[in-house]
Protein 1
Amino acid sequence: MSRIGVFDSGFGGLSVLYEAMQRLPGQDFIYYADRVHVPYGEKSQEQLLEYVQQVVDFLINQNVDAIVIACNTATSVAVASLREQYTLPIIGMEPAVKKALDLYGDKKVLVTATPITVRGDKMKLLVDRVDKHHLVDLVALPGLVHFAEREQFDKETVVPYLQETLQDRDLTAYSSLVLGCTHFNYFKDSFRDILPEQMALVDGNAGTISQLIRKLGTQIESTGEGRTVYYDSGKLCEGEKREKIDRYLERVKRMREIS
Ligand code: DGL
């Protein structure tokens, strides 16, 4: 049986954790939300390296067998240096650009992410590698991270923000929209309201957990109770904080039904 650490700057990574719990029900999970430092997407690379290091050290002290960085931004900045330092499997996330091009590459693809991910070298390398026909456009949607952290999911708030940010784009030219930040999974209902029907929503959650399963190998054949504990910036979530997490997980479950 394995003990798997999953972390994000905040609540976005719960969408990745949910996928993992569905597919690996007999494993233990520790979820860490680094909420004192959210939003990662608007910090400097140096700050992020420091924050991520602290979270990874915390998880390693909890004896995890593997770590999932349920955050595209943290992966973009820190995954290479973490893999140099540690021997345990570290599974990162990157916006599912390749998946979108493979599935819907007959038309343009709109990739959404945080400002750091959009500007990062890792994104440039990814696009250079997979976007042979120059079909990819990038857009940062930092406002969605703020809405998600405030549990503000109502369409009255979210839809105008999306409309304004995307107003200069001809959305009928796109085949799909990539949710390149784990927080964006909470807003599939609002995206669906403003996107033309032909635009598919694509995320990288399933691919990330498939990679985790490959890395853990035979370790997951033995199963246990399947317990999950949650930490908010180093403090165990209990009582009201735990109830709040359950509300987020409930929303993750509902948003998963929307494609
Ligand atoms: N959830 C994170 C991601 O996937 C970043 C959100 C933030 O800006 O903190 O990129």
Protein 2
Amino acid sequence: MCGIVGIVGNGPVADRLVDALRRLEYRGYDSAGIATLDGGAIGRLRAEGKLGNLSQKLAGAPLLGRIGIGHTRWATHGAPTEQNAHPHATERVAIVHNGIIENFRQLLENLAKDGYTPTTQTDTESVALWVTREPGSRRYA
Ligand code: GLU
């Protein structure tokens, strides 16, 4: 079962997101990731396997955003790879999700008509693309 965390902080939240995910490790997971918002841009790091792998990546490429989300994944759709790990993101939105999007194939078929192509094998990415296509969707600044 996945773990989900979110933090709105006064300083960089990346380490706190990983700490919070560590507290949820008992739930079991196959990959993990975080995304933060820094100066209007989404920064994202993901890794297969244990949180230590994500921490190592973070040490080499810090994320400085003060708002962030994190996820430990228990794959239901798509292999437990870095590419399929959450958060799923476009230039406009990053999302984490627990569970199954039952109609994701229909959503992706609809999105394909407007040129939106998934880059992962997950059901979750369909929602990130759907939100991005919405006319009211805008870059957070
Ligand atoms: N269905 C989503 C996936 O396979 C979410 C899995 C979960 O709850 O961790 O990525």
